[in-house]
Amino acid sequence: MDSNLLIIAVAFAALVAGALVYLFLKQRREIKAAQTKKPGSEESGGVPASQMQLQAYERLILLVDRISLPNLIQRMNQPDISAREMQGLLTHTLRQEFEHNITQQIYVSAEAWDAVRNYKEQNMLIINQIASYLPPEASGMDLNKHLLELLVQSPKASLQNIVSDALSFEAKKLM
User: Fold this and answer.
1) CA torsion, points 81, 87, 89, 95, in degrees to nearest 10?
2) How far apart are CA 45 and CA 173, in angstroms?
3) DSSP per-residue codes, 7-66
4) Is 175 exposed, middle or buried, given 0-12, 13-18 or 19+ CB atoms closer than 10 A?
5) Positive or negative torsion for Cα 90, 93, 97, 102
6) What does R_g of the chain's alpha carbons equal in angstroms?
7) Torsion angles phi and psi, residue 59, rounded to 5
8) Residue 122: other Cβ atoms inside 10 A
């Protein structure tokens, strides 16, 4: 695998991680200020807004887990397809999972939604970059292998834990 690709992926991951840490710290300050305010009002259906928000955070944590590269690869693994077909399958599934949960953004903070969206974009970028470095005759297994190797060689290339932790933190504020 080309070392430039690894450097690009790690640099991108570090940049996104830095942005998420900044947003996380910003949220902490906002939480302290918001703790003096009253809890959320009831929705028209009688369900407290905080309960709906909690459910949205739960769904987004599940989404983050489902779109993690190891889980995507495990669910979509088809040994007899080409790397380009596997690239298409992984990115298509990633988009579908994200779009299925897109309405959750109205219940969570803008920062939480941005973190989830950035995680999806990061995974798509990694898939597309790794696929672009493979020869045309590469198999889907080759693509999966290189994706998993990148995550093993550079565990910080994935933002899954950071995003999940940020979502959990926000959800716990509601409890």
Assistant:
1) 180
2) 23
3) HHHHHHHHHHHHHHHHHHHHHHHHHHHHTTSPPPPBPTTS-BHHHHHHHHHHHHHHHHHH
4) exposed
5) positive
6) 18
7) -65, -40
8) 22
Which pTM does this prediction carry? 0.73
Alpha-carbon gap, residue 135 to 46, rounded angstroms = 57
What angle is formed at CA 142 by the lines to CA 138 and CA 145, rounded to 5 degrees?
165
Tokens of 97: 């999972």
Per residue in 66-120, pLDDT (tens digit) is 999 999 999 998 889 999 999 999 999 999 999 999 999 999 999 999 999 999 9
Give the start-to-end residue ranges of the domains of the chain.
Answer: 3-28+48-174
CA triplet 17, 23, 26: central angle to 5 degrees? Answer: 145
* Residues 93, 167 contacting (CB under 8 angstroms): no
Distance CA 141, CA 145 (A): 6
